[in-house]
Structures are given as structure tokens and as C-alpha cells.
Write a structure and sequence with these properties.
343 residues; alpha/beta; Aspartate Aminotransferase, domain 2; Aspartate Aminotransferase, domain 1; seven-stranded mixed sheet; 13 strands; binds pyridoxal-5'-phosphate; pyridoxal phosphate
Length: 343
């Protein structure tokens, strides 16, 4: 029996079309800036988001960490939500790479507002670290794939401009967010100084993220990428997968969202689920009954052929993606509704 893998949207295999595009890519040495496929991918994404330039990197962690390094000096402070990937899941990289401290906010499903940010911006006083950067995330991973609209982002961007702070977006799942909000990618360039876009999540490539910014920032970013060991040579084979994904895998994200909604509906009808965070994209976070442990329920799902992970003692995460078909989702209905978690 084929297992259904809902652990993450990073588990996807490249499609035949994507592999064909990769094999036929024209490549060069990207450390010399001579890989035309990498250059095309960077340009394509920069144009799409209304930014000046882009930089292809091996991972979203690297694009985020490079952006933070570009926008801060040692002893500065970064403001973000306490659930932020840059803070929780990047190994303490802000301290290690940028020698900066972090001010954490307590948003709703990871969403923060200008009213929450403003009082946390430090006054110019030698006792305080200088607040120089705000980081937002969209969609919000730990917020159960919550989506932020540009209308919600605008007041934060205006605040950052007026206080002279940079604004970076961790857009690992930005295309999922755009699918839900209907916002135009092009408008993002008006609000953000840096944007990270992952190609290996919902878009289904094997590797790759692109950092977007203005020309001066991306020039500095290329220097930092080299120092971190992220300068790749004939990287066009990987970039070709990214171009293919942008052309072929954005429209279908709505299917993943539909699948996530169905999973949530079925989970709500069971007697072992206490609550489900209403899905806004391709992530479903749910809590098991008070008397159950999430890890035990994950084991039962695994036995039934459904792989998933816990994200807390009571919380389980499902993520839908390119390799989950509608017949897989039908099988999930069967597994979810028949699961006996009370043995
Ligand atoms: C996955 C993810 C990243 C980047 O992760 P990598 O595995 O380093 O590519 C960054 N931010 C968020 C919110 C993510 O979910």
C-alpha cells in the first residue's frame, strides 16, 4: 500500500516535465554570474514581485538569514512574532550569523499589527539595541498556514518606513498566500525591502529559494551567500526546476487548499480531535482530545498508512501538496473517520 505523506509539502518528487526541463537547461558558472538559467529565474521572480533583483540560494533558511544579515548590524534587534520560522526553526541563526537580538511579539496565529510593533521599536538610547528590522511570514507556518493580506501589511510597512526600519518577508509559501488572498505579487515590491520565496515547498522543486531585493542589497547578499558556502556553480539545472514550477505549479495550489479544507472537515467530525485551526491554505493544524497524546495518534495514523508529524504535545499537522491526489484525499477520509484512537 502506498503511504500518504502529509508531513510536509517538501516531500514532493519532481514531475516528468520538471525533470525534462532540468535535463535540458543551459548552464554556466553561477559564481561568475554566467548561468543563464539561474539569471532567468532570478529575473522572472524579481519582475513578478516588483523587485529589482534576485539571488538563487539552496534553501529558505539561507535566503532569510542572508536578508537578516543584510538589514542589520551586530547589536541590532529584529522584531518578529514568537512563532516566526526565522526565530524558531533556523537554529538560532539570527544570533550566530548576524549577532543580533530578537524582540518577540504575540500575534494571533502569528499575525502581527503595526499597533503591536510600534511600542517595541526601541528609542535611540545607549541602553537599548537598535531596532532595525521587522520580519513577517506569509503564509504563517505555525499559524496553521494563516494568510496575511497586503491591506494588513500596509500599516506595518508604513510604520517601518517612518521609523527607518527594514521590512523582510519570509515568503516560503507566498504563492499559497497569494492564492488565498488574491493579492497581486507585483504589489509586494512596494512594501518589502527583502522577500524570500521557496520553490521546494508547494511549488514542488527538489531544491531552491530566491531572495529578492534592490540591486545594492542583492549585491551584498551575493557576497554573504559566498561566505556561507552557498555559491553554486552550474546551478541552472536546479533553477530550471524553479522556472518550470512557476509556469506550471502555481495555478494548482488551489487544489491543495481544497484538500486541506476537506481534511479539516473530516477531522472535526471525529471523537479524538478537540479542535481544528480553520485552514486558510495547505496546512491543517489540529489538537487531539485532552486525554490523548498527539504522538500516539500519529502512530495510529502511520499504521493506517497516513504519515504526519506532531508540532506540540497535543498538536498534529497535515500539509497537502503536489503529490497528494484527490484519490489520496478520499483514502484520507476513510482513515480519519475510521481511526480508533481510544484503544
Ligand atoms: C520551510 C520554511 C522556510 C525555509 O526552510 P528551508 O527548509 O531552509 O528551505 C522558511 N520559512 C518558513 C515559514 C518555512 O516554512
Amino acid at each position: 500500500m502506498k503511504e500518504i505523506d502529509l508531513r510536509s509539502d517538501t516531500v514532493t518528487q519532481p514531475t516528468k516535465g520538471m525533470l525534462d526541463a532540468m535535463f535540458s537547461a543551459k548552464v554556466g558558472d553561477d559564481v561568475f554570474g554566467e548561468d543563464e538559467t539561474v539569471n532567468a529565474l532570478q529575473e522572472k521572480l524579481a519582475n513578478l514581485f516588483g523587485m529589482e533583483a534576485g539571488l538563487f540560494c539552496p534553501s529558505g533558511t539561507m535566503t532569510n538569514q542572508i536578508a537578516i544579515k543584510c538589514f542589520t548590524n551586530p547589536m541590532d534587534e529584529v522584531i518578529c512574532d514568537q512563532t516566526a520560522h526565522v526565530y524558531r526553526y533556523e537554529g538560532g541563526g539570527i544570533a550566530f550569523n548576524s549577532l543580533a537580538s530578537v524582540r518577540l511579539l504575540n500575534g494571533y496565529r502569528g499575525k502581527i499589527t503595526a499597533e503591536m510593533v510600534e511600542p517595541e521599536i526601541n528609542a535611540d538610547n545607549i541602553h537599548y539595541p537598535s531596532s532595525t528590522l521587522v520580519v513577517l511570514e506569509n503564509t504563517i507556518n505555525k499559524g496553521g498556514g494563516a494568510c496575511v493580506t497586503l491591506k494588513e501589511i500596509e500599516p506595518i510597512a508604513n510604520l517601518c518606513k517612518s521609523k527607518n526600519l527594514s521590512l523582510h518577508l519570509d515568503g516560503a509559501r507566498i504563492f499559497n498566500a497569494l492564492t488565498t488572498t488574491g493579492d497581486s505579487a507585483k504589489d509586494y515590491g512596494k512594501y518589502f525591502d527583502g522577500i524570500s520565496v521557496c520553490l521546494s515547498k508547494g511549488l514542488g522543486t527538489p531544491v531552491g529559494s530566491v531572495l529578492l531585493g534592490n540591486k545594492a542589497m542583492i549585491k551584498k547578499a551575493a557576497r554573504i551567500r559566498k561566505i556561507l558556502g552557498g555559491g553554486m556553480r552550474q546551478a541552472g539545472f536546479l533553477a530550471a526546476a524553479g522556472i518550470y514550477a512557476l509556469d506550471n505549479h502555481i495555478d494548482r495550489l488551489k487544489i491543495d487548499h481544497l484538500h486541506a479544507n476537506k481534511l479539516a472537515e473530516w477531522l472535526l467530525q471525529t471523537n479524538y480531535v478537540k479542535s481544528v485551526m480553520p485552514p486558510e491554505s495547505n496546512i491543517v493544524l489540529f489538537d487531539v482530545d485532552d486525554k490523548l497524546a498527539a504522538e500516539d495518534v500519529v502512530k495510529l495514523f502511520a499504521k493506517a498508512g497516513l504519515k504526519c508529524n506532531t508540532t506540540g504535545p497535543k498538536t498534529i499537522r497535515f500539509v497537502t501538496h503536489l503529490d497528494i491526489s484527490s484519490s489520496d484525499i478520499d483514502k484520507c477520509e476513510n482513515i480519519i473517520t475510521k481511526l480508533n484512537a481510544w484503544n
